[in-house]
Write a structure and sequence with these properties.
The structure is a single chain. By secondary structure, the protein is α/β, with parallel strands linked by helices. It has two domains: about 260 residues, Aldehyde Dehydrogenase, Chain A, domain 1 (3-Layer(aba) Sandwich), CATH 3.40.605.10; about 180 residues, Aldehyde Dehydrogenase, Chain A, domain 2, CATH 3.40.309.10. The protein is built from 16 helices and 22 strands. Strands 14-15-16-13-12-18-19 form a seven-stranded mixed β-sheet, with helices on both faces. The protein has a six-stranded mixed β-sheet with strand order 9-8-7-10-11-21, with helices on both faces. The radius of gyration is 24 Å and the shape is globular. About 50% of the residues are buried.
Length: about 500
């Protein structure tokens, strides 16, 4: 693994008007590295006064920024892409240090964020509007107009990727953006602010306000913030969505998930085992796209044996990083303990693993695989958000589909099979917004958009791709008819 060394970055500030700005609050939040169980920084627990300042600064430049030619706005994204590529190691290191990812996992998340930056560079051709003659002498023109000051509230598990899913589309379409990053993992957000300034983004177009509940509530309530994107738990997503929309704001709030991978006996042995493992254990299971339940149909024992074989080769610190916090570590362990008490067969136990050298104080939990899990148990029903795979056994595809569709979430589902008919059945009938066929992490790539259904999403549309563009803009339609006149110039025609 890439070496991660302890470093204390001291007190970090908010990013206002293109530079670091002291908070009006004296309260601080400690940032703990999950590799070392030690403080690596503090950030301000900002108050509404800090948010108001950011909004006022953003409002002041919006009339100018919204009128900047879209090609010039897209040029900032061209420059940002280059800067991200040049500073990949720096940004990945910060992500790993405050989040617990491996360096390689962190780089992968940056690359997925960079795809949206690249997509934003194409917006001049996508947002060129549309015009046509709809009746004799009458023309309709469609254009995408920026909304004003908008905001994003982002989670700890992808501290750079999720902001990079929001910021490029929001600001390239002409909005000014305020980011409230997770207080657990704020370092990469501040670094992105520096990169945007280096890319040529005018001051006040992008601001970072660190903090916790008061800032989140302030974003929901502020009359000059026109739209909010949120990624986090379903409970908070629902609260943010309800509070924001009650005040007339546009809101898209992505919540939790309990994704299922349906496995049938005809599935390819090796690729299925690798797919199950990668989906459930990638990012130490701390992602909404983790498929934490494998639903086996009939006899899948050969696949399970291969899965265990692959899992036993997983290396902590190389193939999988740490859990983000001590609280999360304790919560995940409780799920495993409970499943064991309820009668689950523990094929691989990730509790009490030996930490990698030099990281003995980190929050390490190894691959955990639970077999013969009842669909009603908490480990099968609730979002664990850790490296735990529950295996449920069924006799039929119909039973498997019932388990998937009874789940309150609807983020993603996958099927592993060599049968086109089975794949078609799952993809057509699974109640989920993203479907994988022999792919355990079915994240759509640009210009296709990311987003689930049911309790996994509150709001309309998706967060990336063309749907993301529509979220950050208002549609303006102009219908025109010009009367016939006897103008002098007509004699030339």
């Amino acid at each position: 693994m890439g070496k991660i060394n302890f470093k204390n970055y001291g007190h970090q500030k908010n990013w206002i008007s293109g530079s670091y700005e002291d908070s009006k609050s004296i309260e601080k939040i400690s940032v703990i590295s999950p590799y070392f169980d030690k403080e690596i920084a503090t950030v301000p627990d900002s108050n509404v006064g800090d948010l108001n300042l950011a909004v006022e600064k953003s409002k002041s430049i919006f009339p100018h920024w919204s009128k900047v030619n879209i090609r010039d706005r897209a040029e900032v994204m061209f420059q940002l892409k280059s800067i991200l590529e040049k500073n990949m190691e720096e940004l990945a290191y910060l992500i790993a240090l405050d989040n617990g990812k491996t360096i390689e996992d962190a780089k992968g998340s940056i690359l997925r964020g960079k795809e949206v930056v690249e997509f934003a560079t194409s917006l001049p051709s996508i947002l060129n509007g549309d015009s046509s003659q709809v009746a004799n002498g009458i023309t309709c023109t469609l254009s995408y107009e920026p909304m004003g000051v908008v905001a994003g509230i982002t989670p700890f598990n992808f501290p750079a990727m999720v902001p990079l899913w929001m910021i490029p589309l929001a600001i390239t379409t002409g909005n000014c953006f305020i980011l409230k990053p997770s207080e657990q993992t704020p370092l990469s957000a501040l670094k992105i602010a520096e990169y945007l300034k280096e890319a040529g983004l005018p001051d006040n177009v992008f601001q970072v306000v660190n903090g916790s509940r008061e800032v989140v509530e302030g974003i929901c309530d502020h009359p000059d913030i026109k739209a909010i994107a949120f990624v986090g738990s379903s409970n908070v997503a629902k609260i943010v969505y309800s509070r924001a929309t009650a005040l007339g704001k546009r809101a898209l709030c992505l919540g939790g998930a309990k994704n299922h991978m349906i496995v049938v006996p005809d599935a390819d042995l090796d690729s299925t085992a690798k797919g199950l493992l990668a989906s459930s254990m990638g990012s130490a299971g701390q992602r909404c796209m983790a498929a934490s339940v494998a639903v086996g149909v009939a006899d899948i024992d050969p696949i399970i044996r291969q899965l265990v074989k692959e899992a036993n080769q997983f290396r902590l610190g190389v193939d999988m990083g740490t859990i983000v916090s001590k609280a999360a570590f304790d919560r995940i362990n409780k799920y495993i303990d409970e499943a064991e008490r309820m009668g689950a067969d523990i094929l691989i136990d990730g509790r009490n693993v030996i930490p990698p050298k030099d990281y003995e104080n980190g929050y390490w939990l190894g691959v955990t695989i639970l077999d013969n899990v009842d669909p009603s148990w908490p480990c099968a029903q609730e979002e664990i958000f850790g490296p735990v795979l529950s295996i449920i056994r069924t006799e039929s595809l119909e039973q498997a589909m019932q388990i998937e569709n009874d789940n309150i979430y609807g983020n993603a589902a996958a099927v592993f099979t060599t049968s086109g008919e089975i794949a078609k059945t799952i993809s057509e009938n699974a109640s989920a917004g993203m479907i994988g066929i022999n792919i355990g992490v079915p994240v759509p790539r640009e210009p296709y958009s990311f987003g689930g259904w049911n309790e996994s999403k509150y709001g309309h549309g998706d967060i990336t791709g063309k749907s993301g563009v529509q979220f950050w803009t208002n549609l303006k339609k102009v219908t025109a008819r010009w009367p016939e006149t006897e103008e002098p110039w007509k004699k030339y025609f």
